[in-house]
Specification:
This protein is of the alpha+beta class. The protein is about 35% helix and about 25% strand. It contains eight helices and 16 strands. Strands 7-6-5-8-9 form a five-stranded mixed beta sheet, sandwiched between helices. It has a four-stranded antiparallel beta sheet with strand order 3-2-1-4, with helices on both faces. A four-stranded mixed beta sheet has the order 10-16-11-15, with helices on both faces.
Length: about 375
């Protein structure tokens, strides 16, 4: 996953001004969700004040906190402020495992990176004999970037059981309409998948129309893996079933993609093209040799690292390694590793448990030319 979207968090933060980082559960499933969010923020605000957060930063966050009221159900929020300015606000698809509020010399966006890494650009398709609903979602988007509801001709759409020879042409017209409708739906699916660069295309619906759509998409595949799930477009119950099966399929797709990264990590470690553990990874990041940074989400035991404000890529375990650089400072490892990765154009992937003996830190190295 590209970390470039985090770059604004590191721009113009003031001369060594502390950064406030907040991750909150802003789920709106309960009738008193607003009150619950208010209480969570109040607790986080107290913690930030005890850590020495500037009142100007807290005031900025007062006006920004609250999540997205238009998004029902589970969600989270990550907010960053420094020098009296809001540096960034991110809606999280998944609520954080626990609320967090930190004041550090640099932003702490690991929760945002992990949440974004869990999402894949995808297309959701519900098809029946009359047409299809097609929606394309960029990674971590709550609203589709592409939406098409197609209802084709419904003339002669229902087949009958008559056995008379006179009914043969009626059946042929019915099948012809089905084929035309699914052909148009398949074009929409291909356009939607191309729009977002889909990794997965999830398809559900009427068995007959689904079979025709499968044939069409097999002949001219769209971008992304085709996954067939339960649900449909006929009524609210079918749509709810579709949403549940889509969520489960997306979790499985995410797990497969991460398992592939772990498989590659093992191969690259064996060939000397990967690093594991904080000392080896921070050295490779400082040298600009990291293609992808892998971090476990649980960083409770992070050690301290040192970094420079002159060059955000440089990291070290000993301040003496920076010579007479007056801008050297210390912070927990994960925020500094991420800062270095963003500065170096490095990709990111969560290191899923078990993290083995890597300190929850590993890196895929760039191939030397």
């Amino acid at each position: 996953m590209d970390l470039a979207f985090l770059q604004p968090l590191y721009e113009d933060t003031g001369d060594a001004a502390p950064v406030v980082s907040v991750h909150l559960d802003t789920t709106r499933a309960a009738h008193d969700a607003d009150k619950q969010i208010e209480l969570r923020w109040r607790a986080a605000r107290r913690s930030l004040a005890e850590q020495g957060a500037a009142e100007a930063d807290l005031a900025v966050l007062d006006g920004a906190v609250g999540g997205v009221a238009e998004v029902p159900g589970p969600q989270g929020e990550a907010l960053f402020a420094s020098a009296g300015r809001l540096l960034g606000a991110f809606t999280l698809v998944e609520p954080p495992a626990r609320d967090s509020a930190r004041v550090l010399p640099v932003p702490d966006p690991l929760g945002v990176a992990v949440d974004r890494d869990h999402q894949l650009p995808h297309v959701v398709v519900a098809v029946d004999r009359e047409g299809a609903d097609v929606e394309a979602y960029p990674a971590a988007a709550h609203a589709p970037a592409f939406r098409r509801t197609f209802n084709g001709s419904t003339l002669h759409i229902s087949r009958v059981r008559a056995g008379a020879e006179a009914m043969a042409s009626y059946h042929r017209r019915t099948v012809h309409v089905w084929e035309e409708n699914t052909s148009v739906a398949a074009d929409d699916v291909r356009a939607a998948a191309a729009e977002v660069g889909a990794a997965v295309v999830l398809i559900a619906g009427d068995p007959k129309a689904l079979g025709l759509l499968r044939e069409n998409l097999t002949a001219r595949p769209p971008a992304g893996e085709l996954v067939y799930v339960e649900g449909g477009r006929t009524d609210a119950s079918a749509r709810q079933g579709l949403r549940a099966s889509v969520d489960e399929a997306m979790r499985e797709a995410m797990a497969r993609s991460h398992q592939e990264v772990l498989r590659r990590l093992d191969e690259e470690l064996a060939g000397g093209r990967a690093a594991e553990g904080i000392p080896a990874v921070e050295e490779a990041l400082s040298q600009g040799r990291v293609e992808a940074l892998l971090l476990a989400a649980d960083r409770g035991a992070d050690p301290t690292l040192y970094a420079s404000r002159r060059d955000p890529r440089l990291l070290g375990t000993d301040p003496a390694a920076f010579g007479d650089d007056p801008t050297v400072f210390s912070a927990p490892a994960a925020p500094l590793l991420l800062r270095s990765a963003v500065a170096g154009g490095t990709a990111f992937t969560e290191l899923l448990p078990p993290a083995r003996h890597t300190d929850g830190v590993a890196a895929l190295l760039r191939h030397q030319v």
